[in-house]
């Protein structure tokens, strides 16, 4: 049997720097735990545009469809800000999400004990925080048609379409309920059913799937504006949150910032399982390409490393090895090892991106 | 000359309770400051539905168009949750916004010194916070067509349309720039221009209006997801934020919760000025109808009272009287007078809704 395959797309900005540490960790699992992967590397985002004139080539797209998991660093940067919409770095990422049909985006917002002081929120509000946001990732206003800018008389008009089908809502709801069963068995669904019909359908379908298939899970519904408030007021009331593509974008970033350490947060984007039960999958840190610190050895590789841990868990069914990696990261943090973004008033040992890779490898 | 006219729409839940205190304050200004208003009261939301079968009657709508300012309490409640979309309490409010063409919704997020401990955020992050969110209120996905739920094959599909014209963006941008000039002269515009064409148009038009008419104001652009993060991380970086209807809904609630005291926050929704330079205007507290505490004398009337202060400032050009009222509220808070929602670990003097009205009148 051949090794499972991974396509690495480091992308732009700090993407390549943080991904370099992940590569070392993948190698470690091959050497020390006999978990071998066939790894190949390719371009996405601005890096792909520079070479191919598009933010994701058809060849790379085809490979992404074939491999067992994709690891992505980050896309975008000021250099590409004025590119035409159709070739912006983000389009590469959106194409991957859409064509791989990665409808379920898992964004844990977890507060690490050693870092609870980093949050702008009071410690008792966030310590021990462990939320999972499940964001629909292949539909909604990100992809709905009609869209674009056109002229009416002598005015420009900008249009996008929020569109959800019943089955699109049902499948992401199922994925949220499944996750909740492995956690605290609670799902809160967020929309604006009071002003949007697409929100009414969202609410109804989530409720129907619940009643028919997951009656054991505790389900509540909340308007997304109230959701933003409640996340700030008392985030620990939540276990799993399920919401659409656009609300998920904003609310998951809000939740991420509650933890105070964006450089720590991974994400998984999952599609439907194939014949062997393995979902199409893309893993990426929640943080962006951070052009301001690119090339300075300052980037925190942990979010990207924890994204690989999610790959171990969700793509390769290696939950124990994932936990091993997560524990190594926790230990390093508890020991006070800190990249620049984690340097707080409490001091700690400052390290570079590579040195953070070193100590995590040592902790493994 | 006749007195300026005010239409009071107390609405549902705690709306009537908090509005009762505002009425006393309006009377005080008539008696003591010779600022007389012609006040009439009518129904909106569930209360209007109960009587008329619609959440806003045509007669009430017509009066709202005629008066100089509308004060609204709150709409909605569990009793109305299962009503058809077209007659939900919220539709009454949305009809007022749309027909009065109240495109500029001003939502201050201000942290009161006496209440800084109430925030879930650390005191140094929020003390002295003073942001003004300007939310577009008459367009975007709230009103765009096509919309609704239809069948495709045997699936339901939910659709809403995000739509902005150039002039809709231009006028709310102007209102943000005007406000900024009276404050710290800084505007941050938020959208998702990286994924939505309507966001691209938004960004372009805001920039054009800036360059042509307000080059003296400092303008920046931010993606809305990053905006949510930055609000949580370091809210004091902002002065005026301008954004669309839906992002404004979520981001202003997020910002409101930073202050820790939702019961304190007013809002103004303004339209175009009439021949005398007076804009169509509706004032309402940011909080909702709070069905859980309705009828118990627990509601905090301050948000509604401060909404009337905004009316004094923006509709009646009585900035000094507005400040007088705001100062009275601040004094009462500094004295430790507290409705139930403001009772914290630091104690304070607990008062009912009416008693809070009493002490504010006394402070005036
Ligand atoms: C980069 C951008 C297209 C993307 C999004 O809006 O989905 C990002 O913000 C995210 O949340 O993954
Ligand atoms: C009640 C509801 C229709 C309204 C909105 O979504 O605009 C409210 O949330 C608000 O922010 O004023």
Automatic annotation (TrEMBL), chains A, B:
Q: Does the keyword Ribonucleoprotein apply?
A: no
Q: Which UniProt keywords apply?
A: Amino-acid biosynthesis, Branched-chain amino acid biosynthesis, Cytoplasm, Leucine biosynthesis, Magnesium, Manganese, Metal-binding, NAD, Oxidoreductase
Q: Which residues bind NAD(+)?
A: 77-90, 288-300
Q: Which domain of life is it from?
A: Bacteria
Ranges of residues in domain Isopropylmalate dehydrogenase-like? 5-360
Q: So which residues are the signal peptide here?
A: none
The cofactor note reads: Binds 1 Mg(2+) or Mn(2+) ion per subunit.
Q: What is its EC number?
A: 1.1.1.85
* Assembly mode: Homodimer.
The protein depicted here goes by the name 3-isopropylmalate dehydrogenase
Species source reads: Litoreibacter halocynthiae
The root-end lineage is: Bacteria, Pseudomonadati, Pseudomonadota, Alphaproteobacteria, Rhodobacterales
